[in-house]
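WARN no homologs supplied; continuing
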Amino acid sequence: FVQRVHNKPGDNDHQKLAHVDTFFPAIKFWWFPEDVKLEHGPLNYAKGSCYPTDIYLDWIFNESMNIIEGKYDEWKGKDHMEGSFRASEEELIAMQFELEPITVKANTLVVANVSGFHCRGNVETEYVRSAIHGSIRIEKPFEI
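OK structure emitted
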């Protein structure tokens, strides 16, 4: 679909919090007809975070237990409870992940495994970014 992201400073956009969409591989893609510069609030991605490490798996387990017990941080929101886990900068550092902005030239296709940590970037000036966007998810991830 055609996506127009209206990115504003201080808009409390929940997509600007580092998160994973799912615990299993899921692909999203964006074709950007125009340059996406740092000041446009590009996609930020933690390279390698889609590969589970022991530290990451422990974090997932603990977050799952916190959700069951109703003890997760309120700022993580309802999406966290629904499995799109949010992580603070401190949590990312503890898991040895670092978000990096993905800036691109016009006419670039970006493909990302969104089971890794990612988020929308912040802006200092209001900006509208256009893309063709789509996603591919495994319908039944537990079946072989």
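Strands lie at 2-7, 26-32, 43-46, 99-101, 108-113, 118-120, 127-137.
OK
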